[in-house]
Amino acid sequence: MIGVTLAVAVGGALGCLLRFATSNWISAHWPQHFYAATLAVNIAGCLLIGYLYGQFLLRPEVPLALRAGLIAGFLGGLTTFSSFSLDTLRLLESGQAPLAFSYLAFSVLGGLLATWAGLILTKL
Q1: Which of the residues 10, 45, 107, 113 could staple to 79 if both were Cys, CB 3.0 to 4.6 A apart?
Q2: Would you list which residues are annotated within the binding site for Na(+)?
């Protein structure tokens, strides 16, 4: 378990560093489009999690430390949007469309409301 934990920690650090570098680069080149960094890492993270998930389904022998390090660690550090997208896709694939769309709506609206609430808390 130590190996898996270490893989997640290292992957997370690398994902965070890539997100930070992406944000800095985009801010330096297109400061008026600050949101582009988040959009870029979210879309890239979704592409990568879909690819990795597919590869890991085809290759169940891939060690847990590598799977966890890449998905929970690297992509978790880069973006949590990729995990959210995969969860939604898996619900749809398993025939649970109503739950998938409820999860989608609650996640987006809940995230927006929680972000707003956090902002409001700073003003108290």
Answers
A1: 45
A2: 76, 79
